[in-house]
Amino acid sequence: MTCYDRNDLGLLLLRLGTGGVLAAHGAQKLFGWFGGGGIEGTGAAMEAMGYSPGKQSAVMAGLSEAGGGALLALGLATPAAGAAAAGAMAGATAVHAPNGFFAAGGGYEYAASLALTAAGLAVTGPGRISLDHALGHAVNRGWMVPAAFAVTGAATAVVIGLRNRRVREAAEFGQETLFDE
């Protein structure tokens, strides 16, 4: 008989809480559940935030959040799940960063917290109360952690970089002349 320790229970709670929140966020984007905009509404919002094309951005963010969150909650493919969720939250952090840190002012506090928790779970692993453990860690090998973060980090850097360029170009194009010559 297996006796679970505090670490296993703590990791289970972190996975269920973080994974559940991320899955709900993704369901808002993908299906319009929980007051979300669905693909259409989220796609328009993503376009307005500089993520283009908007619909594809909504689908990718929704899948990363819903899929990564569900897998984290289950403790399955934990390195890939955590990296995907952290990447999606890095994209949200980029949007909120100009508003400062605290969420009360529209800042990135909440997105960064979810990203760091998901990344921490990817690195730490799911614990023994998980599908990864039950399946002999077939999709939770040590080499998968750096591989998942390398792929996700590269993709996230490209997506955020393109978004930042679009936002910068829109700001330059939209500026009015301050002085008539």
Please provide a written account of the structure.
The structure is a single chain. The chain contains 7 helices and no strands. The model has no long low-confidence stretch (mean pLDDT 94). The longest helix has 31 residues, at 144-174. The chain has 181 residues and is mainly α. Helix content is 71%, strand content 0%. Helix 1 (6-31) runs antiparallel to helix 3 (54-74), helix 1 packs across helix 5 and helix 2 crosses helix 3 (54-74). It is elongated, with a radius of gyration of 18 Å.
Quick summary:
The protein has 181 residues and is mainly alpha-helical. The chain has helices at 6-31, 38-48, 54-74, 78-96, 109-124, 131-134, 144-174.
What is the topological layout?
Layout: H1 6-31, H2 38-48, H3 54-74, H4 78-96, H5 109-124, H6 131-134, H7 144-174
Helix pairs in contact: 1-2, 1-3, 1-5, 2-3, 3-4, 4-5, 4-7
What's the number of extended β-strand segments? 0
Mean pLDDT: 94
Question: Roughly how many Å apart are the termini?
Answer: 84 Å
Helix share, percent: over 70%
Key descriptive features of the protein:
single chain; mainly alpha; 181 residues
